[in-house]
TrEMBL record, chains A, B:
The name this protein goes by in its record: LacI family transcriptional regulator
CDD domains: HTH_LacI, PBP1_LacI_sugar_binding-like
Coiled-coil intervals, chain numbering: none
Keywords, alphabetical: DNA-binding, Transcription, Transcription regulation
Domain of life assignment: Bacteria
PANTHER family, per the entry: LACI-RELATED TRANSCRIPTIONAL REPRESSOR, LACTOSE OPERON REPRESSOR
Pfam families, sorted: LacI, Peripla_BP_3
Entry-linked PROSITE patterns: HTH_LACI_1, HTH_LACI_2
SUPFAM superfamilies linked: lambda repressor-like DNA-binding domains, Periplasmic binding protein-like I
Residues that span the membrane, as ranges: none
Length: 370, 370
DNA sequence: AGCCGGACGGAAAGCGCTTGCTACGGGGCA
DNA sequence: TGCCCCGTAGCAAGCGCTTTCCGTCCGGCT
C-alpha cells in the first residue's frame, strides 16, 4: 500500500537503520550510501510516517496556536506572526532535526470560538499528539472551566510541552505540581500579557483632558479577563479625575463584534442622551458604535467622540479614523512564536507585559459645549 | 514518565486490550469493567498517545486547512466555518471513533502566505502525519510549482486523504495515476470553486449600465488564478458592450491588500485622469482605492464609482458602503468542511461552482456627465 | 607485519496502541 | 442433562520508525 522505510531500504540495498539515519542526518553515513538512499526515496516517492517517527523518537513537530476567532484580524495577525516564527528554522537546539525544512515546526491554529470547552478539547487533542508547544491567545473566561484549563496547561507543561500565554493573564502560581514528581520534568508556562489596563486608562484620560465629563463605555463580554482589565483602566482614569460617580452607570456589555457595539451604543444613548464620548471595547466595536451614532444623526467627533482599542489595520480607514491604542500584535505574535520555540526567554518570572501606545486620530475631539 | 495504556490496565486489573476498547467504545465491554477502567483513567490522568494510536490504527484525526493569509478575513471566515464543521461530531461513518468528543476531528489551519513553496511544505507535513483530510483554499499560483502541488495532492488523495479545493480551480484531470496501482485506492479531489468570472462580469456590467465608459481595473497578483478569472469576467463584460478597446490599458496589478489598491489607483488616475469607475480586485483593495481617490479630492461615487469583491463584513461599514459581489464564504467554508469529512458529496464530477451575488450599495452611481 | 581505533552499516529492541483470534463461562434450547 | 452460542476478556502480532549496541573493514602507526 504505502511505501515504508523498509521498502526504501530494500531498494537501496541497505538496512532501514541506514535510511533512517540518512533522513535524519544525525549520524555519519558515507556519501556513496547516502546518495543511493536518497535516490531510492525519490524513486519510491517515500514520505515518512510522522506518527511512527513521533512515537519512536518521542518528539513531535506540531505546535498548537489557540485563538478565539480566526475570522477576527486581531487573532489573525497574532496567529500569522507566531506561525511564521514557528515555521522558521530554529537557531537554537533544533538544527535540521524536525521534518520541516530547516527545523521549523508545523504551527496549527485552532479556533476555539472563545469557548472554554473548545479550548479544553483542543488542549486535550494537542496533548494527545504530544505537541511540542502550545500558544494560547486571547482573553480567558473567568469561571467554571478556568481551573480545568489551568490544570491541563500545567500538566502539558509538566510533560515537556512548551506553553505560552499571549494576551492572557498568567496562570495562578499553583502549589507546585503535586510535589513528588520530577522537579526538572517540565518547563514553565510563559506569559506575554497586554497592558489592557494601562491602555484603557490612557484612552479615557485623553478624553477627559479633552474636556469630556459624561463618558460611556461599551465593554466586552462580562466574564473575560480582557474586558475586566480594560474596564478597570477606564475606571481608574475616571476615579483619578473624580468622575467615577458621574459615569458610574454608563457601561454596557457585549461581544467583541460590530453589532454588539451598535446595540450597546443605542442602549447607552437611551440611558444618557447627554454623553459626549464613548469608549469602545475594541476597534471593531467602535465601528458599530459609530454606525449607531450616525443613525441617530450624531456626528463623530463633533457630537460624540469615540475610541477603539487594538489599532487593527482598518482603523485608519474608518471614517473618522479611529483614536485607539495600538497593540503591537505582529510583534507580540512573533515573540510568542519565539518563546514557544525556545528561541527566546522571558525576562524574569516568565511574565512579560506588552505595552500599548495611544494613537490619536480623528474620532476624538473636545466636546461641543463644556 | 508518562502513563501509558499498560499502566491504566494494571491499575484497573485488566489487560491493555480492554482499556483500549473502553476508550474507543467499539467493542462490547461489561459495564462493571468499563467503570473500573474509567476510574483508573481518571486517577492516572491518562491521555492517549495520539501518535501511537494513529500508527496502530492507521487513521488520524487531523485535518489540514491551508489558507493564504489567516489575517485576512476572507480566509478567516472560510477557515472558521470549515473548522466548526470539522470539529462537529460526524453523522456519517464516524460515530465516536476519533478521540475528539463526538467523532469530530482536529482542524489545523496552516498559513501559507500565498507561497507555493509553503503550500508544498505544509502538504508534505500533513502527508507525513497521514492527515485524514486537507482543504486547500485560495487562489493557486500559476506556474512553476503548480505541477508539484497537483502531484502531491493527487498522491495524498490516492493514499486515502480526502482532499478538497475551495475557491481554487479544479486539478487538471491527470492521466489517471500511473495506471497499474489501485483503481479503488484513493478518493477523488473535490472542488468547490467560486464563480469569480461571473461575479466580476456582473460588477462591470452594472457599471456599464449605469453609464460608465472609462472603467479602470485594479487586479490582484498577476500569476494567480483568481486574478485571471476576475479579470476575464471584467473583460467579457467590456467586450459585450464593445468597450474592450477603450478600457484596454486601464488595468493595474497588485496584491490583495489595501496599500496595493492605493498605489494602483493613483497609477490608474495618472494614466487616465478621465476614468469614472474603478473595479477593485476585492473589498480590501477597494478601500485603498477609495482612500487614494479621496486624497486626490475625488468623491466616491460622485466623481468615481468603485466596486469591491467578496463582501467582507467591513464592506457595509465603509464610507461609502461598497457595491460588491457577495461570496457566501461562511457557507462555502462549512460545505468544504462537510466535504472533507465525507459528510456530503459534490454533485457530479466532484466539482461544484459557488455563485456570487451582486450587492449594490453606495459606492457606485452614474457618472457625472454621460 | 601486527594492532588499534575510527568510521560505517546492520540487527534488533522497543515506542504505545489496535485488533484478529482464541479462550472461557453461563444461559437457553433440545 | 448436554451442547451451542453469545457475551467478554486476554494474547500477541504488528503499525513504521528510531536508536543502542555491535560487528566489520580499513588505514595508519609502531
Amino acid at each position: 500500500m504505502t511505501t515504508t522505510l523498509a521498502d526504501v531500504a530494500a531498494r537501496a540495498g541497505v538496512s532501514s537503520a541506514t535510511v533512517s539515519r540518512v533522513l535524519n542526518g544525525n549520524y555519519p553515513v558515507a556519501d556513496h550510501t547516502r546518495e543511493r538512499v536518497l535516490r531510492a526515496v525519490e524513486d519510491l516517492e517515500y514520505v515518512v510516517n510522522g506518527n511512527a517517527r513521533a512515537l519512536a523518537a518521542a518528539t513531535s513537530d506540531l505546535v498548537g496556536v489557540l485563538v478565539n476567532d480566526v475570522a477576527d484580524p486581531f487573532f489573525g495577525i497574532l496567529a500569522s506572526a507566531a506561525q511564521a516564527e514557528i515555521a522558521r528554522g530554529g537557531d537554537a537546539d533544533e538544527q535540521g532535526r524536525a521534518g520541516a525544512p530547516g527545523g521549523g515546526k508545523l504551527a496549527v491554529v485552532c479556533n476555539t470560538g472563545g469557548s472554554p470547552e473548545a479550548e479544553l478539547t483542543y488542549l486535550t487533542l494537542l496533548h494527545r499528539q504530544r505537541a511540542a508547544g502550545v500558544i494560547l491567545t486571547g482573553s480567558a473566561v473567568e469561571g467554571s472551566d478556568t481551573d480545568a484549563i489551568a490544570d491541563r496547561l500545567a500538566r502539558l507543561a509538566a510533560s515537556g510541552t512548551r506553553v505560552v500565554l499571549c494576551g492572557r493573564p498568567p496562570l495562578p502560581a499553583g502549589p507546585f505540581e503535586e510535589g513528588a514528581g520530577e522537579p526538572e520534568g517540565g518547563n514553565p508556562v510563559m506569559t506575554l500579557g497586554f497592558d489592557n489596563r494601562g491602555g484603557a486608562e490612557q484612552l479615557t484620560r485623553h478624553l477627559i483632558r479633552l474636556g469630556h465629563r459624561r463618558i460611556g463605555c461599551v465593554a466586552g463580554p462580562v466574564d473575560r479577563t480582557t474586558t475586566r482589565h480594560r474596564l478597570e483602566g477606564h475606571r481608574n482614569a475616571l476615579a483619578a479625575y473624580g468622575l467615577a460617580r458621574e459615569c458610574g452607570g454608563l457601561t454596557a456589555y457585549g461581544y467583541y463584534d460590530r453589532s454588539s457595539g451598535h446595540r450597546a451604543a443605542r442602549e447607552l444613548l437611551d440611558r444618557c442622551p447627554g454623553l459626549t464620548a464613548i469608549v469602545a471595547a475594541n476597534d471593531t466595536v467602535a465601528l458599530g458604535v459609530i454606525a449607531a451614532l450616525r443613525e441617530r444623526g450624531l456626528q463623530v467627533p463633533r457630537d460624540v467622540s469615540v475610541t477603539g482599542f487594538d489599532d487593527l489595520p482598518f482603523s485608519v480607514d474608518a471614517t473618522p479614523a479611529l483614536t485607539t491604542v495600538r497593540l503591537p500584535l505582529h510583534e507580540a505574535g512573533a515573540r510568542a512564536g519565539r518563546l514557544v520555540m525556545g528561541r527566546e526567554t522571558t525576562p524574569g518570572g516568565g511574565v512579560a507585559l506588552v505595552e500599548g501606545e495611544l494613537v490619536i486620530r480623528e474620532s476624538t475631539a473636545p466636546p461641543r459645549e463644556s
